[in-house]
């Protein structure tokens, strides 16, 4: 049975871990979106490092989700804080999507979602510092300064 948190036409997943500096970007974007009035068909999920588990649940035939928006840090060697909209085809260029901390590649589930007919978009932010395994809570200034624009990008994606 599918969890109620996944029973939306559009799902926005904030990925990452708040205890590893800029890896908390996804959480921060979701936190801002939670304070807004969004359409009733939009669900917000602070997925942390568990996005593969949520995405597995979406493979249920009773799933009504038509669009998935992933919000996460990326490493494309861009200036820190740079935002980039990525498609499913860009996933192979993102190391953490090939193997995450739990050895469950997120990209496999996103590709399955796309093949099941869901629209998949990634709102990525170039990280400046990810401290794994050392703990550092809080975003760098560059990534923190990109949060408002990241929220705007998600809101634009919701209306497409």
Automatic annotation (TrEMBL):
GO terms for biological process: protein processing. Keywords: Aspartyl protease, Hydrolase, Protease. One of its GO terms (molecular function) is aspartic-type endopeptidase activity. InterPro entries: Pept_A31_F420-red_hyd_d, Pept_HybD-like_dom_sf, Peptidase_A31. SUPFAM superfamilies: HybD-like (SSF53163). The keyword Protease applies. Belongs to the peptidase A31 family. This is Coenzyme F420-reducing hydrogenase delta subunit. It comes from Methanococcus vannielii (strain ATCC 35089 / DSM 1224 / JCM 13029 / OCM 148 / SB).
């Amino acid at each position: 049975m599918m969890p109620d948190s996944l029973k939306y036409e559009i799902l926005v997943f904030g990925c990452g871990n708040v205890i590893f500096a800029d890896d908390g970007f996804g959480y921060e974007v979701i936190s801002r979106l939670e304070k807004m009035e969004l359409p009733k068909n939009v669900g917000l999920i602070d997925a942390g490092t568990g996005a593969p588990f949520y995405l597995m649940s979406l493979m249920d035939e009773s799933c009504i989700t038509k669009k998935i928006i992933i919000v996460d840090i990326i490493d494309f060697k861009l200036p820190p804080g740079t935002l980039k909209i990525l498609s499913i085809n860009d996933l192979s260029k993102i190391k953490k999507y090939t193997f995450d901390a739990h050895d469950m590649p997120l990209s496999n589930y996103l590709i399955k979602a796309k093949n099941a007919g869901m629209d998949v978009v990634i709102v990525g932010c170039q990280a400046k510092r990810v401290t794994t395994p050392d703990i550092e809570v809080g975003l760098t200034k560059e990534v923190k300064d990109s949060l408002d624009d990241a929220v705007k990008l998600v809101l634009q994606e919701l209306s497409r």
